[in-house]
Structure to design on (265 residues):
């Protein structure tokens, strides 16, 4: 993602000069994704949209702060264990996870389905929890912290129905730039999902072979999450939608009720 695209997605005013180093340091940490455990300054500069000189200075600071580990022989950096501790603190301190996880597990076990909860991060969705009880063997394994495309998934399309037209337009520009050939049909699919969320409270998608997913927005006091149910099946999508709509909506309402009792919605 370019610096311009990051700016377009910003929901708050840009960082002050005093905070710019912090902002750039976070961009370096964001550059690490599964499959790219070791990155050099050049790769970090390209991914973070920064100069090599800036990256060289900031990586040394991040090493000193215990956020990165340096491997001189391989001329690269990897995330340090302290980063994992931050993720653990986030999960253990999340009220929505404390409330939602037991209810999600109960539904997954009773229906033998997959249940997930995700939050938006720029142009992607990040799983906070994924409880897998698929009815049949599937090769796709989803874990907490995993990212999925916002534009292709029911989770992302449900979220897109909740945001402002201006923010949605900025996201559409990013989606179009990386999926130019399929964008006309994908846009029609997204708009259909947005209408479905507004009219019925949920949307459906099947972006993986023989996997059907339904999702609904979960609005809390802080942000709007997305909640989904999915199955690996050879059944037609309409059949799956008919069988899973009620359980999904009932789960959302149960979570919101429990959150309300805590004063969180």
């Amino acid at each position: 993602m370019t610096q311009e695209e990051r700016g377009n997605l910003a929901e708050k005013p840009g960082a002050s000069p005093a905070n710019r180093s912090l902002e750039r340091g976070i961009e370096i940490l964001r550059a690490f994704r599964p499959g790219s455990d070791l990155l050099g300054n050049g790769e970090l500069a390209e991914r973070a949209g920064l100069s090599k000189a800036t990256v060289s200075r900031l990586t040394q600071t991040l090493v000193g702060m215990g956020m990165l580990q340096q491997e001189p022989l391989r001329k690269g950096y990897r995330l340090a264990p302290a980063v994992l501790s931050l993720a653990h603190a986030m999960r253990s301190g999340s009220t929505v996870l404390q409330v939602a996880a037991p209810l999600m597990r109960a539904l997954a076990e009773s229906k033998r389905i997959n249940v997930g909860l995700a939050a938006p991060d720029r142009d992607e969705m990040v799983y906070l929890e994924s409880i897998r009880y698929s009815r049949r063997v599937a090769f796709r394994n989803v874990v907490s912290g995993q990212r999925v495309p916002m534009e292709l998934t029911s989770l992302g399309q449900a979220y897109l129905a909740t945001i402002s037209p201006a923010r949605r337009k900025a996201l559409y520009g990013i989606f179009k730039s990386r999926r130019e050939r399929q964008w006309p049909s994908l846009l029609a699919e997204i708009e259909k999902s947005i209408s479905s969320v507004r009219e019925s409270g949920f949307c459906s998608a099947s972006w993986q072979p023989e996997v059907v997913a339904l999702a609904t927005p979960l609005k809390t006091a802080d942000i709007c999450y997305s909640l989904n149910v999915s199955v690996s099946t050879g059944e037609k999508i309409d059949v799956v939608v008919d069988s899973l709509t009620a359980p999904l909506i009932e789960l959302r309402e149960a979570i919101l009720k429990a959150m309300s009792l805590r004063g969180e919605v």
User: Anything to note?
Assistant: The radius of gyration is 20 Å. Residues 160 and 168 are 7 Å apart (CA to CA). The chain has ten helices and eight strands. The mean pLDDT is 90.
